[in-house]
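Weekly puzzle thread! Below is a chain. First person to post its structure in token form gets bragging rights.
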Amino acid sequence: MTSDSITMKDLQIKSYDLRKNIVDIVLAGNGGHIGGDMSVLEILMTLYFKRMNIHPNAPEDPNRDRFILSKGHAMEAYYAVLAEKGFLNLQDILSTFSQYNSPYIGHPNNRLPGIEMNSGSLGHGLPVAAGMALAAKRSHKSYRTYVVMGDGELAEGSVWEAAMAASNYKLDNLCAVVDRNRLQISGNTEDVMALDDLHNRFAAFNWNVIGVADGNSIIELDVAFEQAEAFKGKPSVLIANTVKGFGSSVMEHKANWHHKVPSGEEYQQIISDFKARKESLL
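Winning reply:
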């Protein structure tokens, strides 16, 4: 699938094929953060198929855009997108995911093409992304840096130190995305560590804040990324309101699907839900 020929509708339809791939990867490895995979998928697809300047035949291009999956536990979704884009081979992932000595582990591994940073220690992605964006500014490079964070991750103090630094250096080549699904492993984010109004929080750090009402809509996400790219003088952040476990009523809005392997019966229902939603778009 190439970004030159694909339409927004094509991408939204394709998201349900990738959702099946994600579930199959989780089953193959007997583990995975399936709920967050489903909430973040459209964000990754919009970046990789519509917004970012990246090419699987030139993964080390110095002018490529940079991407960091700070919520590194959503790796199965990242694998599905990287395979669809042509960086990785899906069958290789399915046959060895989470096995001994496999490079296909449960968090990003930058020994694989297309992956910039080993991540998973939450709160580190935005600081590193800010450093990459600052490096681009100081070396007069045109590439942009994108980072996707989970909302539960925002309890980490390093996120806000990086937010302060990014605005101080006017890193308008930096775009962060918060996967605002409101659930983390311990339950609702507002019960664990309340985030309240994220728009005002980031605005207080002098960021350009863009709300995305439906963070599982590729159309809405693409518009928001375009706005971020056009904005000058400040870093931008998208607050993407997503649904954990999006795509199947079996998983949606349920914290216990943060990390879970579907049973045989659950698998059949999930795949049936994906098929029905895909057919509704045709």
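Puzzle host: Confirmed. Bonus trivia for everyone else. DSSP finds ten helices and seven strands in the chain.
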